[in-house]
Amino acid sequence: MAAVNRVFAAQLAGLPVFGPDGESIGKVRDLVAGLRLDQLPPRVLGLVVELSTRRRVFVPMLRVTSIESNAVTLATGSVNMRRFHQRPNEVLVLGQLLDAHARLASTGARVAVVDAAMEQTRTRDWVLARLAVRERTGPLGLGRRRANLQVLAWGEVAGLGLTDLSGQPQGAGELLMLFDSMRAVDIAATLRDLPLKRRHEVADAMDDERLADVLEELPEDDQKELVAYLAEERAADVLEAMSPDDAADLLAELNPVEQNRLLELMHPDESGPVKRLLKYSSDTAGGLMTPEPVVLAPDATVAEALAHIRNPDLTAALASMVFVCRPPSATPTGRYIGCVHFQRLLREPPAELVAAAADTDLPPLPPTASLTELTRYFAAYNLTCAPVVDSEDHLLGAVAVDDVLDHLLPEGWRETGLRDLDPETEPEHA
């Protein structure tokens, strides 16, 4: 993402959108933000882009690599061509937020929203941090054309929280506000205790990425129930947002007709890795691995490797190790050379090549390795992440220790495991 501190929504309207190679994608027509009940700035979820065919599609903000005064550029990858549909907790910044009526939190004065500015946080999220407002005067609140324009922090303007078009709070709004500061595993535990209707309301209001995180933490029966409730296209979108290994585990539990239908609806770039994982038994290295570890070419530097593992979207296990392979870097890769633990990276000069620091003696796992073999492997080598390599020395993926633990724990641990950790539920000692 280009180093832009603040971008006003009105400046984005109509800007051309280009792919990484300069190909024209379309034009920006709106911004999509997820509203909240409290006064914290809402997160900008993505852009509504109008293609040359007039179809409007959603592009997540994570796909945006730069925002300039004359264009927006996207990262490598294909654009999801499904038509954009607004969700219950979303607001179109240009289409609905601008010209909305609100009040100043300090004085109660009536104002109209003229523009909204998004700013990027330390976690790379974009939020609607500031609002440009103009005071409304007169008996009907009609503003003078030259009333003073003020740029205020989001929290200084009241009346723009998580509401529907009539101004009434969404049914699941309070829960969404609570969930905003919770880990996905804790949200999953809460969802299991909700009535089915409320659980569905929450699922409808969550964005795809958040729902995918929560779905990964639910027991299989609850996963299948939620997927069955969602419309097919929404279910496919959520599966695309899940980790490929988790998506494969979920799809493996569905009947072949449902499984094939959802795979067809997923984008080929997302369904391809999932299909490869479905070829392996779920209790083998091939079934447990993720096909998206950190892979670098031999001529990459230690500094580049450290930059890759700083990615906040990586789990701690996957960030603990980088894998050095000949091109191509997408799995299945070119010839596997070795791996470098992040502690080794910290000890090497930044300009050193990763190939020189690679551990070539650590034996990789075959995709057919059983759960017992995986357990012994992790215990013997004290690892949290391990390479999975085929008979032709292609890296297929990496197994993380948390996925191994998931399959070692007794069935139903997700329903009881976290409660067992609560000290208030432990029996008193005599």
From TrEMBL:
Protein name: Magnesium transporter MgtE N-terminal domain-containing protein
Keyword match GTP-binding: no
Residues covered by the CBS domain: 358-416
Cross-referenced InterPro entries: CBS_dom, CBS_dom_sf, Mg_transptr_MgtE_intracell_dom, MgtE_N_sf, MgtE_transporter, PRC-brl_dom, PRC_barrel-like_sf, SH3_actinomycetes
Alphabetical keyword list: CBS domain
Signal peptide: none
